Amino acid sequence: MFSLAADLIHVFSSVPRHLNFIDHTSDIGWKESQRVQPVIVDAGIYLAGRNQFFQSTEKRATPDGFKFFTGSPWVILNRRFIEYCIFGWENLPRTLLMYFTNVMLPLEGYFHSVACNSDFRNFTVNNDLRYVAWDDPPQMEPRFLNITHYEEIVESGVPFARKFREKEYLLDKIDEKILQRWRHRPVPGAWCTGRKRWFSDPCSQWSNVNIVRPGPQAEKFRRYMDRILEESKSSNSSCAQ
Questions:
Q1: Contact between 3 and 180 (Cβ < 8 Å)
Q2: pLDDT-based confidence at residue 53 (cuts at 50, 70, 90)
Q3: Long-range contacts of residues 83-92, Cβ cutoff 8 Å, at least 24 apart
Q4: What distance in Å separates the CA atoms of residue 54 and residue 32, rounded to the nearest whole number?
Q5: Which of 67, 96, 125 is the endpoint of a domain?
Q6: What predicted TM-score, i.e. pTM, was given to this entire model?
């Protein structure tokens, strides 16, 4: 199995399965007037071949039937929470779905608001497991990562990072040093049984593809995971903020 996938499976196998990882906050600030109150109509929902959206000239009041949360659009959700969002046995997920249909960038608020306005608030870790570099003060978008961030990314133990420019050298170094991936070849895993030579790919021969053998970064990821889970348990629910 690929090294990164093996590391993820290895660490998550000991993480409680009822947890969701959703970076979120109720301190929406400027987003209230620019994201929450404007009414957005996405033409792509009902017109084939169109990806434009339109903004109404009028705004709507900030909802008082639920608390609005926002955060990272990259989330890790457990099965029970997904089933709740689909079936919505007390109608909250569908109510919020209808509301977020007309919100700019709904992926930055829908799951966050459903989780924090429901019983899942106590099973949500306020983290998206991503390394991101922000300006000071933060701008609309994070900084592009480059080779100067390499050591910090490696030592952090965080499994994901963003954002990168196309053909960024940092990605090549991650492939070479962390994933041990040769150019134009797959990431080698425990299933690769061929000999590693400059003219041959060790993964051209394989055995059991279900073998999971964590790589050297797995221990750093494990320490990072232990730390954020301990912080989550020792602090008050971030959904109450």
A1: yes
A2: confident
A3: 84/114, 84/118, 84/120, 85/111, 85/114, 92/66, 92/117, 92/118
A4: 18
A5: 125
A6: 0.85
